[in-house]
Amino acid sequence: MRSKKRPETAEFVEMPPEGVVILNKQGKIVTSNARANRIFGYTSGELDDKRISLLVPQRLRRSFSDKLGKQETVGQRRDLSEFPVNFIFSRISLDGEKFTICTIHDLSAQRKFEARVAENKQSREDLVSLSKFPHENPNPVFRIDRAGEVLFANQAAKKLLKDSRSKSGAPSIDDWKQQTLSVLKSDVVRKNIAMAYKNMFFSFCGVPVVKSDYVTYYGIDVTQHVKVEEGIKEVQKNLSRMAYHDSLTGLANRRYLKDRLTNALAECARRDEMLAVLYLDLDGFKNINDAFGHDAGDYALKTVVTRTHECLRKADMAARIGGDEFVLLLLGIKKPEEASIIAERLNKKLIEKPLTIEGNKIYLSVSIGISIFPVDGETTDELIRNADTALHQAKADGRGGYRFFTTENQDKARARLGLEHDLREALDQDKITLFYQPCFLVKSGKILGAEALVRWERSETQLVLPADFLSVAEETGLIVPIGEMVLEKACRASKKWSEIGFPNLKVMVNISARQIQDVDLPNTISRILSQTGADPSNLVVEVTENLIMRNLSEASRVLFEVRDMGIEVWMNNFGAGLATMSSLRVFPIAALKVDGSFIRHVAENSQDAAMVKAMISMAGDLGIKVIAERVESQEQVSFLWEQNCEALQGFIFSQPLPAEEFTSLLAAKGQAPEAA
Known about the structure:
- The structure is a single chain.
- The protein is an alpha+beta fold and 676 residues long.
- The chain has 24 helices and 27 strands.
- The strands form five sheets. An eight-stranded mixed barrel has the order 18-19-21-22-23-24-25-26, surrounded by five helices.
């Protein structure tokens, strides 16, 4: 099985000529470069999810580990052949997760080199004077005496020493002379004499021959090894930056923000200064992503960052802490009003210059919550939390504004958390129930159907209306399980009414935006219909204008799939939202429910009357039924009857009723309803 977690270091891993493998914290290989695969005889990806101990013989695996540092040992290829190898382990961190990087050096060539030296039993002085071996060595070998005279040099050394006499950056002959005098004086073999030139790196071993007053130097080209180590350092530097900065915007991330804020609080307390935390949220960001894609969303975020920097002082700091949320630190302010000036200046800059995306002008704005040190908190977590609380209030009051933290904000936030907790319990305890408001046919007065309206039985005496909890359900995602529960209960009620003699009764269920976006709504409805045995022709899905206009393509796809299941789609609150008349040709709308704000004054307001007439006439031409909701007076009924409105719904006929009472109302009508 291939590992699912891969560090984003592919370019670095493939760069060095040495073998490189990266291990996760379980000690398993998550990626390996081409050189490592060739060294051990494996194909690309074949080592993934294997333990690195696979690369050494069975007899050595118990003692082998990925501890930091170097391990010279025996490697084992896939064909079980063995060879000398050096493993170098170091740690790296990526997005807070620890990895181990292992650089692998095949020592086969080096061991052959050492073996040839060991085979020669002559003295050190005679050994270095042999002409055959030094000439064959691909690395530089040369001899310099006390006077700085070069007594011998093989081909590789001649090139190096030639460069030493030029201005190439290599050590000069005088440098080598001084090195020789030092080695002869100590009469000790000196290792790891480093030399760099022309982007190449060598490590020399100086062997003194004191009687003859010269030193023989054996060089090894360590260029690639140095580059690998430099690469590791660069990757570690980049990973360290990634640990503290956002990759898209380059701003500080949440971790760096907290570190910086903690230090700033200590400094402000020492100087008796104030500090402001501004919590920003980009308004309508999801709509930009949905309408134009994530590249456009990234462009919007970067634009906000650019214009934010234009509003800040050098001492201030901006951080992106996730999605479309940012935090600004205003250091050393003298009064809270300075924070509000920044907030107003930022939104002014955003609105003055709209973005142009695919020919569309997009006006950006941010909602901002502000907390002040020390009045709103004295710790990092308090200030960020309280600024976030103020942000929620700013968004509740409308877009493009700011709010300072107050204890009233905090009380509202705590009440909201309590509401969310109780709502979750209500779902678990089946405390969500449905009431049904009848919808009457205008001409016959018979019941066309009923709209299923959700209620929350918070206690034996408290029945909570949707307006008091659905916004919290939307924000927290609880609207999805609530919506599924409503669908199931409505379908069970429909099945029951059909069985007792009301086979054509329409049951209308409202669908939320989250249900269209976050779940496979057609499959969910299909499953519930199958479980309950309800007739799909008796189910009506009601959507609002704003819901379908928010994501046209996705809403259209879902609603056509629902229509193809034999379920009618009605548009609720028509006229109060964003939809245009032409949009009715795009969606499979079977009926319009005219928003109650138009019905309220239709009998005395000529403009409202004209608009309702136009809606009914237009819908009739398109073959779409019209239902008026929130009908409350006889004058409204008379007007709508004259305009040939299909059906009416409102308190003048009936309030929403529990299922049992609605069943009694059906029985009181004396006959099954007609299909509209």
